[in-house]
Design goal:
Elements: H1 3-12, E1 21-22, H2 23-32, E2 36-39, E3 44-49, E4 52-57, E5 64-65, H3 67-79
Antiparallel strand pairs: 1-5, 2-3, 3-4
Length: about 80
């Protein structure tokens, strides 16, 4: 995991929840954590890290992730054992 991934991870776990994290940075973090990603229907994405599976909806038309999605990503990473 490089410094950009660590910054993204810190942003995901920061309080208050941020709404300016780019989805591409989150996907890059999933890859750095050894995640397996599969495109699902539409803009859905299925991610598996350490045996934990989650489904996310890629944001559009803006590249930033909203607060609700950031909270979902945070819970997923916690369940998968990934913490800052």
């Amino acid at each position: 995991m490089n410094s950009k991934h660590r910054k993204t991870l810190a942003a995901i776990f920061s309080d208050p929840v941020r709404s300016d994290i780019k989805w591409a940075d989150i996907e890059s973090l999933f890859n750095a954590c050894g995640g397996d990603m599969e495109k699902a229907r539409g803009s859905r994405l299925c991610v598996m890290i350490n045996g934990v599976v989650a489904h996310f909806h890629r944001p559009h038309p803006r590249p930033e992730t909203d607060k609700g999605a950031v909270q979902s990503v945070r819970r997923f990473l916690e369940n998968a054992g990934v913490k800052p």
